[in-house]
Design a protein that fits this description.
mainly alpha
Length: about 325
């Protein structure tokens, strides 16, 4: 009886370590160190980017240690889905940090050593994002898992990863509570972001752990209902957030110059008005992703199929025959 390989070879682990994991650790560490060395001049956006690079470094280090120390046969199939899903998030995190840091900080720094460090940090962040993308795209070849389709390589999982990631970036901007506190309409928008994030995260975990088969009804119907609910909630947020943030009659600030925080030369690169605009744009982007998710599951229900990466019984049987 032929079985598919559900554990990486030692050679595969070494190749991944030397070609991907070690450069990932070095690039995120260098990016973090360059910005940290700038002291107080790195600003709020610098601290935000540093936290992202630090998380990527720490998680990559932990995953590397676990894979190097544990015996290959002790790896369940669930581990690979977790590992590849994290790598997908890390690629998005480093890419977003590179873009946001360069747009909102680097271009405003005067020429000199600090600008050089900021540019170098952005470059290393870009390198890290490319390395993570390479790992997501080719990890099954390195681990000799060519016949296994990872959950994260399916359409539905990529949509969920994007939904939760964009929501995470929104939460980063909402860390400034003055944007919405004591304003019921804006607090509702924050509740929408939180509810939809939790729903998407729960669905992601259900699929990763193969717990979807424990649901009393069809998983596709469950997904369709949640996607429709999320779309409706995000539509309300897309309407209310710009209205109460940028319409003067409702207490908003239609122009950047009307925000006192943006008039300060030390904070003009990422003031409160910029954060309001960023949340509005990200809300629209995430709504489009949810609409695509809704369309995907509507198609699955209409044709009576569900895009399953593998049959659960087959995986259970083959995991019992680990080489």
């Amino acid at each position: 009886m032929s079985t598919r390989r559900t554990s990486p070879s030692n050679e595969g682990i070494l190749w991944v370590f030397w070609l991907l994991r070690l450069p990932q650790l070095c690039s995120t560490c260098v990016a973090f160190s360059l910005v940290a060395d700038m002291g107080t001049l790195r600003g709020a956006i610098g601290n935000w980017s540093m936290s992202f690079w630090c998380v990527c470094f720490a998680m990559t280090f932990i995953i590397t240690i676990v894979e190097c120390c544990r015996h290959p046969s002790s790896f369940p199939f669930f581990w690979y889905n977790i590992s590849v899903t994290y790598t997908c998030y890390a690629a998005l995190i480093c890419l977003s940090a590179s873009i946001i840091y360069s747009i909102t900080y680097v271009q405003f720094v005067h020429y000199g050593p600090y600008r050089d460090r900021a540019i170098a940090a952005t470059a290393f962040s870009c390198i890290a994002s490319v390395l993570y993308v390479i790992e997501v795209a080719g990890i099954w070849d390195c681990y000799e898992l060519k016949e296994i389709v990872f959950y994260v390589h399916t359409t539905r999982s990529l949509l969920k990863v994007l939904e939760t990631f964009v929501a995470g970036v929104i939460f980063a901007f909402l860390s400034n509570t003055s944007l919405y506190l004591h304003q019921p309409a804006l607090e509702w928008c924050v509740a929408v972001y939180s509810i939809c994030f939790i729903l998407a995260a729960v669905v992601l975990l259900l699929d990763l752990a193969e717990w979807k088969y424990m649901l009393p009804g069809p998983f596709s119907i469950f997904q369709l209902v949640l996607s429709l609910l999320s779309v409706l909630l995000y539509i309300s947020a897309l309407v209310l957030w710009p209205l109460y943030q940028f319409i003067e009659e409702l207490g908003g600030q239609p122009q950047r110059s009307s925000d006192e925080d943006c008039m300060d030369e030390l904070t003009h690169y990422m003031c409160a008005w910029d954060q309001r605009l960023a949340v509005a744009v990200l809300t629209a982007i995430n709504l489009l992703i949810y609409v695509a998710d809704l369309g995907y599951w509507a198609h699955q229900v209409s044709v009576g199929t569900e895009d399953q990466p593998r049959d659960s019984q087959e995986v259970s049987s083959q995991n019992s025959d680990i080489l």
